[in-house]
Amino acid sequence: MFDFLKKIFKGDESKKTDSKPIKKTNKLKTEPKKPAVTKSKKFEKESNKKTKPKNDAAQLKPAKKTETKPSADQDDTLKKDEKLSFAEKIKQGLKKTRDAISGNLSALSFTKNIDQEFYDELEMTLIAADVGYAATQQIISELKDRVKKEKLEDGAQLKSLLKKILSELLQHIEKPLIHIETSPFVILVVGVNGAGKTTTIGKLTKLLLDEDKSVLIAAGDTFRAAAKEQLQVWSDRNNVTVISQDTGDPSAVIFDAMQSAKAKGIDIVIADTAGRLPTQKHLIDELAKIKKVIQKFDETAPHETILVLDANTGQNAINQIKVFNEAVSLTGLIMTKLDGTAKGGIVAAIAKEQPIPLRFIGVGEKIDDLKIFSAEDYAEGLLE
Hints:
alpha/beta; two-stranded antiparallel ribbon; 14 helices; 10 strands; elongated; cell division; Signal_recog_particl_SRP54_hlx; EC 3.6.5.4
């Protein structure tokens, strides 16, 4: 979103070298191959409950590698490739946000002096990228204070400082999903129509399977005719079971899924729900009913209530969070379709105005394109 910064911070790019340390990522190091277990057996519908980890909670991390352990030189190369791949994927997903407003900055003064004109142009740029007024004012204020404190006079020095300030703001919502060792661990997925809930459930299932968890899906969207079929396609790809009914109460479907998961020793139940607009009060109220039915089976459930947001909605996402949070007490967010929008700054607005943990971001259409949110990587992707 900030191509103009390449002009403002002229000469900054020339300081980079190929020897610069590669940014950290959430990828795990390649590990030795574990005893072979076929996926079909591992996630067989009628399989027994597998041994749980000894720790009380397991933080979700990107997929473990199961290939034969490479040599030392190969291992270093693989680590480098994995880091580059993860960082580049985030940058690619945010490209439209970086590029969309560059044409509006031709009037920006390219003087080396850090003056009010620079701050005014930066403010307009941030707001245009859907960073939001409140977050923009905070970023500008902190930037001014640090420039004064550190006695900076050259605009080229501001790039890294701006990244740091943005990253610090985003860290308020950088809290990866924690899987509590209770069985089944219930994830309730909510959102408006077209936000990408079904696709996100498929990708989240893949991520959880890669974390050695067994998963069962509850087709709780009983309103949309194609919802069950779409979930079935994803479940076939992931080799997991979908609990559904041709017609009926979504609460009953989810309750049945929890009973089935308990009987079969399944680790996690992901419950889909029908899309609903924040203005449809009767449908929003229905979510509260679903939650009460879930708690009849397990009073601690749902253990995670995730709102799926479409990044294309921009500032409207703030209102969605408010409405759904009032109805079902959200514990996490997933932001989808970041690769197809110029409104990626909305994440900063959420961090300032509705700081609910952003668990994952969707940066592509592939099954592995659901990434654990990292404040540092996101800031780097916006201000490359």
